[in-house]
Automatic annotation (TrEMBL):
PROSITE patterns assigned: PROKAR_LIPOPROTEIN
UniProt keyword RNA-binding, yes or no: no
Keyword terms of this UniProt record: Cell outer membrane, Membrane, Signal
Pfam families: SusD-like_3 (PF14322), SusD_RagB (PF07980)
Residue ranges annotated for the SusD-like N-terminal domain, each copy included: 21-232
GO cellular component: cell outer membrane
Domain RagB/SusD: start-end pairs: 346-485
Transmembrane segments: none
Cellular compartment(s): Cell outer membrane
Membership in a protein family: Belongs to the SusD family.
Protein name as annotated: RagB/SusD family nutrient uptake outer membrane protein
Length: 485
């Protein structure tokens, strides 16, 4: 975590909604369009503003302490899964109990604006470069912008649209690839994903040779990781395996001590490949990831409104798997048994701990470790079980030296997903995988530790509740957009 100073343009460039004001990119700021067109530094500054906005509190929705950018959306998605629970009702409960998906909830607005605000800012960069031409000075900026636009449309498609496979003609999201004052209709799933793939694949040659100064920037590795996730969603399993392998190659895996260190330092976490750098200037205190998910911080929300792991997933980890140490083994057990006023229940998370001493822990969006599971699933589903087993064993034996892979067929897929859920608990991948794989929500089971009645619910796979409604404000502002059930 180092202190950085970028130019925060995005929140002033584009406001919320699909009204004229929202889409107006004639900035009333210190940099005009002519300067943007002629200055690579101004263009990079604009992109840097997007990176900063992706972890800035209050830009997407000012009325909730849940709105701190991309990491907040990832956290919300995990709260909707089988694997995480709120021990007491508080922030993120609307995601946990699925009421946050309805059109009148500020949570739909939070997610919608998190990405569409930045897409419109990114389109300003892309339009400027395409008008003046790609040069050696701006090509990496162009590559970053294309990759970000593709990925942000992908995040929106996963939340507000159906799954890709089997729903190509269904309504998905509006696609914005130019600076416009007109709110668009929703494109179908096939059209949306074709544009996502086009943006991501087009970004790669422009990022060749680009060396980023920190892990907040998107480079070739990150763009390939984006593509790996997209190809997996699309059922392009061979492509997903290839992109995932490329994205993880050359990345050192964490030691046990590093894995259990709290996930708060982007640069020091060896397998972290993309995230947000939080400094004293950009930290948002209680409206932040660690305030909500660090159960050991006596000044945050989580110390009272604990985040816990589902007991089934906890029980699935053998004692030889060091990842089990990231969760409280019993009520009031060491190391947090009343120390500094913190007393945690069994299953409470100890995975995310901010040790930055007041500066504010960084946000890790993506780790190379995820790519092992994408590669393994891609290989298994494209007919290479031996390769899938080798990749799964390679990473899992680092976490559990006693681990062996014995499953085959559908049981192998289940084992890959199980290990992925354990590895990436709390990092934003469980719910989107449930939706993609057709896994229902099952929290009301014998011996459940989901103790809040509102969240102790079961929802069958494919239910309409797995898709968010379009925010009411967007429906009112954009007559061209239609609503989900």
């Amino acid at each position: 975590m180092k202190k950085i100073f970028g130019i925060l343009f995005c929140s002033t460039i584009i406001l919320t909604g699909c009204s004229k004001d929202y889409l107006d990119t004639d900035l009333k700021s210190t940099i005009n369009q002519e300067q943007i067109d002629s200055s690579p530094a101004a263009l990079q500054g604009l992109v840097n503003g997007v990176y900063t906005s992706l972890h800035t509190y209050g830009l997407s929705e000012s009325s909730t302490h849940e709105a701190w950018g991309h990491k907040a959306v990832l956290s919300a998605m995990d709260m909707m899964s089988n694997d995480m629970l709120n021990n007491r009702a508080s922030w993120f409960s609307a995601f946990y109990n699925y009421t946050g998906r309805i059109q009148t909830s500020v949570r739909t607005t939070m997610i919608w604006n998190t990405y569409f605000q930045q897409i419109r800012a990114i389109n300003t960069v892309i339009a400027s470069i395409e008008k003046t031409g790609v040069t050696p000075q701006n090509k990496a900026i162009y590559g970053q912008a294309l990759a970000l636009r593709g990925y942000m449309h992908f995040m929106l498609a996963r939340v507000f649209g159906p799954t890709y496979v089997g729903h190509l003609n269904a309504d998905c999201i509006p696609v914005y690839t130019e600076v416009t004052l007109v709110g668009k209709t929703r494109s179908n799933v096939d059209t949306v994903y074709k544009q996502i793939v086009k943006d991501l694949t087009s970004s790669l040659p422009y990022l060749v040779g680009y060396t980023r100064e920190n892990k907040e920037k998107v480079d070739t590795r990150v763009a390939k990781a984006f593509l790996a996730e997209v190809y997996l969603e699309m059922g392009n399993y061979a492509g997903a395996a290839t992109m995932a392998h490329d994205a993880r190659t050359g990345i050192t895996q964490p030691t046990q001590a590093q894995w259990l260190d709290g996930f708060y330092d982007l640069e020091a976490s060896p397998d972290a490949i993309w995230g947000g750098i939080i400094s004293e200037a950009t930290t948002s205190f209680v409206a932040s990831f660690f305030a909500h998910f660090d159960n050991t911080d006596p000044n945050g929300y989580a110390v009272v409104f604990n985040k816990l792991i589902d007991r089934r997933l906890y029980d699935a980890m053998p004692a030889t798997d060091y990842r089990k140490k990231a969760f409280q083994s019993a009520n009031n057990a060491a190391p947090y048994n009343g120390v500094d006023g913190v007393s945690l229940p069994k299953y409470a998370s100890l995975k995310f701990i901010d040790k930055s001493i007041g500066q504010g822990g960084d946000y890790i969006y993506m780790r190379a470790s995820e790519m092992y599971y994408i590669e393994a699933e891609g290989l298994a589903k494209s007919g290479n079980e031996a390769g899938a087993k080798a990749v799964l064993a390679e990473i899992t034996q680092l976490r559990n030296p006693a681990y062996t892979v014995t499953a085959s067929g559908s049981a192998l897929i289940d084992e890959i997903i199980l290990q992925k859920r354990i590895e990436l608990w709390g990092e934003g991948y469980a719910w989107t995988d449930m939706k993609r794989l057709g896994v229902g929500l099952l929290r009301d089971y014998p011996g459940t530790n989901h103790n809040l009645a509102a969240g102790r619910i079961n929802i069958p796979a494919g239910d309409l509740r797995f898709t968010f409604q379009v925010p009411q404000a967007e429906i009112l502002a954009n007559p061209n957009v239609t609503q989900n059930p």
